[in-house]
Amino acid sequence: MTTEHILKNVNDIKIIDELYPRSAKDTKVIQRYADDIDVLPAIEINQNNILIDGAHRLSAYKHAKIEQIPCIITHTDTDQELFMLALVRNAGHGLQLSHADKRRHAIRLCGAVDDSEIIRWLSVSDRTYRKWTTDKRKQLKEERNQRILDLYLQCWTQERIAEELDISVQPVKDVLAKVPKNPDFKPELYNIWNFAKITNETHHPGNIPKEIIENLLYYYTKPFDAVFDPFGGGGVTIDVCKVWQRRYFVCDIQPTEIAKEKGMHTHDITTGLPDDLPKPNLVFLDPPYWNQMQGDYTESPNDLSNMSIDEFYETFAELFKTLHPKMVNGGVLAFIIGNTQWKNDDKHVEPHSHVLWNLAEAAGFQFEHLIQVPYSTQQYNAQMVEYAKEHKIILQLNRELVVMRKP
User: Fold this and answer.
1) Nearest to 210 by CA among 191, 228, 193, 192
2) Residues 55 and 148 in one domain
3) Co-location of 159 and 66 in the same domain
4) Starting at the edge strand that comes first in sequence, how are the strands of the sheet with 51-53 ordered?
5) Residues near 114 by beta carbon (within 8 Å), at least 6 away in sequence
6) What is the reported pLDDT for 104?
7) Could you give the number of structural domains in the chain?
8) 149 and 7 together in one domain
9) pLDDT value, residue 347
10) Which three-class secondary structure state does DSSP give residue 8?
11) Which of 42, 105, 138, 327 could form a disulfide with 70 if both were Cys (CB 3.0 to 4.6 A apart)?
12) Which pLDDT belongs to residue 268?
């Protein structure tokens, strides 16, 4: 921060209300200053002609119809720096800040500057400061606690959260000691989960109804359990986990910007598991249904929708092998997939769910449940239906949700 002296036209000096500590001027002081204008010290402005100190002196010069005023120019880098400097200058000399101004600035600065510094600058007692800032400190604590919870749900460690927020680990532990309850929810009771439409906020190719995730969380997890979803798509798993207070590690080979804002990681699952993945209690897989939406996700050869059928299955075989030792004992693996039919030239059914089921068992998982999930949107147009009738083809209308467990 550097300073220099110069004469400035009084009309060029700007007072920014939110950056200047005083909310009102004393006309008696302005008149007194105008009478003694020859002995007034220079005002202080920054390099952009914004006033730091000297509002009454500036008004006195204008009252006396003197066009130029001596200025000390102090270079500031940010609005916050300018305001802090103005507060120190105005509290240190001349007309004292009003009680109302001091209270206003105490509330404004609380949480941004050390409390002892604010008390010193404003020349108020600790008791007065804490009385003024009771609501603000309560609000800041609530915001901090929410931030702790948000980061923990993103699978941050307690130590990393404490370092990020510049606090000790104990407040983090205190917040997380209060285990939340599940939201009110009416689960599906049978093994057909039929949802009329997709209600997700974020649109993405291959989106599934959020109720699928909700039911899985209800049946197979408890609050603060970790959920891993490597085919994150539009981020429905993140949305639901936040509501249900489950920790989530969600990634995708090419997340959208909205998904990144939600906290989705960029990761290609064909290269292995993420290095910082915690031990999941639930792994949920909603992969591309082989080539049914080829090219709709990405152009990457590592995108499962762009692979040959052999590569597709080999990728899952390797994924299941690497997942098994990483998961907690008793952890659940759930994958949902629709068998490919119409894209096959002879319209035969490629039984993805059956093959993945066998691959998961080969990796050490045990079968728990098979759930039918009808598609929420129309899958066949009139021409397709007529073709199926003519060629005596049974059309696929369901996806299959396979639930398995690590013993």
Assistant:
1) 193
2) no
3) no
4) 3-9, 68-74, 43-45, 51-53
5) none
6) 87
7) 3
8) no
9) 66
10) strand
11) 42
12) 94
